[in-house]
Recover the amino acids of this structure.
């Protein structure tokens, strides 16, 4: 549709009214490009941008000024970053054309050719800003989609890894629970495993929110980096480090309260409904204890928030410095 509109606008420019040979040659090139399109040669968005710019170079007089006004209005509507600057520049350009500095006496009106040349240069600048913004939006939308899909894929794998022990607990509890838990092995480090995996999930969740909310202000290179697997894993690994810091910080006992987990109460409870009337379904639930649920939440928040761990470390540093000063 864009190409159809461009072709319709192009044929309103009469070749015989063009004053220079270069303009007539450019008119012939544009006509050839549209003829090839009608012949079945596909044109891309970059070709449409190029043709639109070439058509703008053929305009003159009042039509050129109306084209600039329309393009500036489009730039404002499309939220082009340079729209306000271009508007002010256009006002200043018209002022310099209509009222040149140190005019002769009596004042001589500016030559139409010189004014059109300045306005064409300005129109090219406006079109470059509009075209780049449209191109950036297309590229960034595509890169954001790839980054979101890959982050979701890694997040799904991380979620399965985090929840795998909880699905295994049902069969473990039905077997010899005492032997399974007291024999050490994996279950002896279940709390550390939970903290690491949910910290990883929190970091991935943070990346997804960033991609959804801030993609319009992210640079192209940042978006391209955000869609690579190694970058996603690297950023999510920071969440693991944050969860580890919070895990050992909570275990150290430096803070206490109902909102912090008790590490002696990190258990899974099997809740039985028994012979209830009417019968309840499911009749058996395996639920984390309140302390385990708190550890999961703190680990997730540590991975999600990039400011939590630095704040904890800064506060601990001040407390340590104060305790050291008091001990001297």
């Amino acid at each position: 549709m864009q190409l159809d509109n461009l072709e319709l606008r192009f044929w309103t420019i009469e070749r015989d009214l063009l004053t220079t040979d270069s303009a007539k040659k450019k008119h012939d090139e544009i006509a050839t490009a549209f003829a090839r399109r009608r012949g079945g040669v596909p044109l891309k968005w970059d070709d449409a941008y190029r043709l639109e710019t070439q058509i703008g170079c053929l305009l003159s007089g009042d039509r050129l000024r109306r084209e600039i006004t329309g393009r500036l209005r489009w730039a404002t509507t499309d939220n082009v970053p340079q729209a306000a600057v271009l508007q002010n520049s256009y006002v200043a350009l018209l002022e310099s054309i209509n009222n040149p500095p140190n005019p002769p006496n009596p004042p001589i009106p500016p030559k139409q050719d010189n004014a059109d040349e300045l306005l064409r240069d300005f129109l090219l600048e406006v079109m470059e800003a509009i075209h780049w913004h449209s191109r950036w939006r297309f590229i960034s939308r595509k890169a954001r989609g790839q980054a979101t899909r890959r982050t979701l894929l890694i997040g799904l794998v991380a979620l399965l890894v985090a929840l795998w022990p909880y699905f295994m607990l049902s069969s473990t509890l039905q077997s010899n629970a005492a032997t399974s838990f007291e024999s050490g092995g994996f279950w002896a480090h279940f709390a550390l495993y939970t903290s690491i995996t949910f910290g990883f999930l929190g970091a991935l969740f943070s990346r997804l929110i960033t991609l959804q909310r801030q993609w319009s202000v992210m640079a192209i290179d940042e978006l391209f980096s955000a869609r690579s697997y190694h970058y996603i894993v690297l950023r999510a690994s920071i969440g693991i480090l944050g969860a580890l810091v919070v895990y050992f910080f909570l275990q150290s006992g430096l803070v206490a309260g109902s909102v912090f987990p008790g590490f002696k109460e990190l258990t899974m409870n099997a809740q039985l409904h028994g012979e209830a009337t009417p019968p309840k379904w499911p009749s058996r639930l395996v639920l984390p204890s309140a302390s385990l649920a708190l550890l999961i939440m703190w680990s997730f928040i540590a991975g999600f928030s990039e400011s939590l761990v630095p704040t904890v470390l800064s506060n601990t540093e001040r407390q340590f410095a104060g305790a050291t000063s008091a001990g001297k």
In short: The chain has two domains: 2-136, 149-327. Strands lie at 268-272, 284-288. Confidence is low (pLDDT under 50) at residues 177-181. Residues 2-136 form one domain.
